[in-house]
Amino acid sequence: MVDMTSLVSEIQEKFKIIGRTEELKQIALAHSVGKNILLEGNVGVGKTILAKAIAEYYGSNNFNFFRVDCSEELLPHNLVGYFEPPLVIAKGYNEDSYKYGPLALAMLNGGCLFINEINRMPENTQNSLLTALDEGILEIPKLETIKAHNDFFVIATQNPAAHVGVTVLGEALKDRFIWINLEYQTPEEEISIIKQEANINSDRISTISQLVIQATRDSTSIRRGSSIRGGIDLATLIDQYGNSRSTKNWVEVAVMALYNKIELEDGLTQSKKEIITNIVLAVLNKTDFQ
Ligand SMILES: Nc1ncnc2c1ncn2[C@@H]1O[C@H](COP(=O)(O)OP(=O)(O)O)[C@@H](O)[C@H]1O
Ligand SMILES: [Mg+2]
Predict the structure, then answer these.
(1) What is the pLDDT of residues 158-203, one digit of tens each?
(2) Which of 64, 128, 268, 289 could bridge 76 with an S-S bond, Cβ 3.0-4.6 Å?
(3) 22, 56, 114, 193: which to mutate for ligand 1, most atoms within 8 A of CB?
(4) Which of 40, 49, 233 to mutate to test the pocket of ligand 1 (most atoms within 8 A of CB)?
(5) What predicted TM-score, i.e. pTM, was given to this entire model?
(6) Longest distance between any two alpha carbons in the chain, whole Å
(7) Residue 37: which of 55, 16, 21 has the closest Cα?
(8) 89 C-alpha to center of ligand 2: Å?
(9) 208: buried, middle or exposed (CB in 10 Å: 19+, 13-18, 0-12)?
(10) How far is the CA of 45 from the centre of ligand 1 (A)?
């Protein structure tokens, strides 16, 4: 048994992660028994920062960290590797003419393969991961069969399937991951994150910023509310702008910070700008900070 509590606080401290104690414990538990980890959650809940921290933490002795950012264009050879035609002509099919991809490199060297937004990976690329993930074997035709190093592990992130523009991760691949879910953090934790990431001390600015993003999530006019990024941007902008006692300034920077980060319900009579404005006014009216 590993001492999870001190391990978790060490990770929090080293990577400046606020909260997420339970989730980090779950991640450490899954990793300690050699499981692949899939972090799922909405945009901005901290999937990438957690995955990077874990990857770095566990690879820190002999650090090997291979990152893949997925898109619809990611082909199997981007993951596994490929023969370079001119080199094949010169040298034949051997190691010298092969360009290893991140999956092959992570398996050969040990360390972490970090697959960001895995749900965007096309299905045939997903298939090239299957044997690597559960048997630790990767066959490279005309070259070799790689057996995974003991320290090889995979951590992946994905947005929930309900998101627009998100494809579904195949059953076979899903089956090979331990699932860890990330919800929004508590208001207190979000305020601390805003302070840290916007690099400000003001309780007033960070609290108002958190209340504003909270209100976008609670509003019945808004289908998808703002992530913590909206709060960080809002706090950063108002702090830089100067007079944070000015309602007009708050409204102006809130529109800048949030416009692209929220999605309205259909059939509303109010514009996005009006909705953001009303939220800011309500928060400023309600808070004792005015
Ligand atoms: N628990 C946390 N502690 C510190 N910073 C956080 C935390 N959660 C999110 N952040 C910050 O919020 C932003 C979004 O996080 P990120 O990991 O990129 O989200 P995702 O990958 O889920 O979209 C980043 O600036 C990140 O540093
Ligand atoms: Mg991310």
Answers:
(1) 988 665 555 677 888 888 999 999 999 999 999 999 999 999 999 9
(2) 128
(3) 193
(4) 49
(5) 0.88
(6) 75
(7) 55
(8) 40
(9) buried
(10) 6
Which residue minimizes the CA distance to atom 9 of ligand 1? 46
- 167 touches 119 (CB < 8 A): yes
Q: Out of 182, 203, 219, pick the residue that ends a domain.
A: 182
Cβ neighbours of residue 22 closer than 8 Å, sequence gap 6 or more: none
CATH number at residue 201: 1.10.8.80
Q: What is the pLDDT of residue 134?
A: 83
> Are residue 154 and residue 229 in the same domain, yes or no?
no
Instruction: List ligand 1's pocket residues with C-beta within 6 A.
Output: 17-20, 41, 43-49, 193, 197, 228-229
Which ligand 1 atom is nearest residue 157's CA? 21
Give the residue from 198, 226, 217, 202 showing the smallest Cα distance to 287: 202
Domain containing residue 236: 187-286
| Of 59, 67, 43, the residue nearest 11 (C-alpha) | 59
Number of domains in the chain: 2
